[in-house]
Design a protein that fits this description.
lyase; alpha+beta; MutS, DNA mismatch repair protein, domain I; about 15% strand; 9 helices; 3 domains; nucleus; Trna Endonuclease, Chain: A, domain 1; 5-stranded mixed beta sheet; about 300 residues
């Protein structure tokens, strides 16, 4: 069993900073490899990983998860997804337990919001006002040019008095609504910073009580990870986890893990159903039950009717 880490969140973050400061150091085997601590945000009770480097670090630790974000360049499709990486409850809990992940708590924006934020808001509104005046002047000039062109086409030589009169009327009656102003929208950024507003939006206190059987699933998940297997959700296969001998990009799943309490009764019809399902998808069904010091496994294979 893996030893539980007693490090707190500030200690883990400090370790992460110390590792970043040591970047560039070399060892006997080559450059020192940086292992960043994975920051875990919460949206309600769902663990999310946002930074690309931390998504890669989670993959290197055998934490697969699933990408659920839309791509900025291809937003109207769901074949290829991007960040954030959604973790299962067991994956997020395991990262915290082994000291490789740290929960990012929700931040009260009223506590951290100061003069700097108010100055930035005021500056933003001032920039919007300046942009509005510039666009209003440009729209008026464009309308005047259009009026001059139309009057030139209707008559060969319009008088100066009539032309000035039309321009004055246009000047007085011209209206440029603020809703017509063009506003620049940022579609890319150099990186996502853990600012107070982002953390408050993406983070939430996991106050939702754990479902019945979540502790059983976590113990099974942790034991299989310690044995070197990679796991993903097996909702479509009628189990709790799909068990891979390595990275799911390189291997097919060999097992369907079904997590049960040691004293839980399972009807024979359910045993036959899950065994036949495993046979149809060419996988072995594992009945996994945590005991006091280990996890007990029972494999099921459908051999047909006798």
């Amino acid at each position: 069993m893996a030893e539980q880490s007693s490090s707190t969140a500030p200690d883990l973050l400090k370790r992460n900073l110390d590792e970043r400061e040591g970047e560039g150091e070399t060892t006997e085997n080559g450059p020192k490899k940086i292992r960043p601590v994975i920051g875990i945000n919460f949206c309600e009770s769902t663990p999310l990983v946002w930074r690309a480097a931390e998504v890669k670090a989670a993959r290197e630790r055998g934490i697969i998860g699933s990408l659920v974000g839309s791509l900025a360049r291809q937003p109207r499709q769901n074949c290829r997804l991007g960040r954030p990486l959604e973790l299962t409850e067991e994956e997020g809990r395991l990262l915290e337990e082994i000291g490789e992940g740290v929960r990012i708590p929700p931040i009260d924006p009223q506590v951290e919001a100061g003069e700097v934020d108010r100055e930035r808001v005021d500056q933003y509104h001032a920039d919007l006002d300046g942009t509005f005046e510039e666009q209003k002047a440009l729209a008026l000039e464009d309308r005047k040019a259009c009026l001059l062109r139309v009057m030139s086409e209707k008559q060969n030589a319009p008088s100066d008095s009539s032309l000035l009169s039309r321009l004055d009327d246009l000047q007085r009656s011209f209206s440029f609504p603020r809703a017509a102003m063009t506003v620049q929208l940022c579609t890319a950024s150099a990186g996502l910073q853990y600012g107070p507003e982002e953390r408050d939006f993406l983070s939430a206190s996991p106050s939702v009580p754990r479902e019945r059987g979540s502790e059983t699933r976590f113990l099974v998940f942790r034991d299989l990870r310690q044995r070197g297997f990679c796991l993903t959700s097996a909702g479509k296969f009628g189990g709790d986890f799909l068990v891979y001998p390595g990275d799911p990009l390189c291997f097919h799943a060999h097992f369907i893990a079904v997590c049960l309490d040691l004293d839980e009764c399972l009807p024979v019809s359910d045993v036959l159903t899950v065994a036949r399902l495993g046979s149809n998808v060419k996988k072995t069904v594992l009945l996994c039950s945590p005991a006091e010091e280990e996890v007990l496994y029972t494999s099921l294979q459908w051999s047909g009717m006798i």
